[in-house]
Write a structure and sequence with these properties.
The chain contains 5 helices and 8 strands; from the N terminus they run ααββββββαββαα. The chain has a single domain, classed as Jelly Rolls. It has about 160 residues and is of the alpha+beta class.
Length: about 160
C-alpha cells in the first residue's frame, strides 16, 4: 500500500467526522499521520496507556479483550470508515480497555491526544463541534453496550 494523502473527503467517510464543518476538518487534517499495519500487527495492547484515536482508511482491525480463564475474545471487527480509541482523546490518561490488531493489511490515520487537546484549546468553536460528535458517538456505543448486557442478563435468567 502506498502513501495516501489524507484529505477532507477521506475524513467524511469516517462516521465520527461526517457531520463536521469544513473548518473543523481543515483543522484536523494536519494533526493526523497515516500509518500502515501488516496482518497480525498490534496497533495497541489492552492495558497500555491510551494516547491516540485511529481512523481506518483501508483494511480491517480486530478489537479483542483478554478474558481471565478464557483467553482472547474478539469483541468486534472494524472495517474502512470505522474508528477506535476515541476514549483516549477525551478522558484523562487511562489504560486501553481492549487490544486492537490488524486483521489484514490496513492503513489508518492516527490523531494523538496531545495534538487534539491543543486544537480544542486553540479553537473553542471547532473543539465544541468535535467534542459534540464524540459525545454523540460515545452515547450510541454506551446504548449498544447496555442493550448487549440486558440481552445477556435475560439469557442467563432462563438457564
Amino acid at each position: 500500500m502506498g502513501w495516501k494523502f489524507l484529505d477532507i473527503s477521506l475524513l467524511r467517510e469516517i462516521d465520527l467526522f461526517k457531520n463536521l464543518s469544513e473548518q473543523a476538518l481543515v483543522e484536523i487534517i494536519p494533526l493526523t499521520s497515516v500509518v500502515e499495519y501488516t496482518p497480525g500487527q498490534v496497533v495497541f495492547q489492552e492495558g497500555e496507556m491510551g494516547d491516540a484515536l485511529f481512523l481506518i482508511l483501508e483494511g480491517e482491525v480486530r478489537i479483542s479483550k483478554n478474558i481471565h480463564g478464557v483467553g482472547e475474545e474478539a469483541l468486534a471487527f472494524l472495517k474502512k470508515g470505522s474508528y477506535f480509541g476515541e476514549m483516549a482523546l477525551v478522558g484523562d490518561a487511562q489504560p486501553r480497555s481492549a487490544s486492537a490488531i490488524a486483521a489484514e493489511r490496513s492503513e489508518m490515520a492516527k490523531l494523538e491526544r496531545k495534538d487534539f487537546i491543543e486544537l480544542v484549546n486553540a479553537n473553542h468553536e471547532v473543539g465544541v463541534e468535535i467534542l459534540w460528535s464524540f459525545v454523540t458517538t460515545l452515547s450510541a456505543r454506551l446504548r449498544e453496550s447496555n442493550d448487549r448486557i440486558a440481552f445477556f442478563a435475560m439469557s442467563n435468567m432462563f438457564e
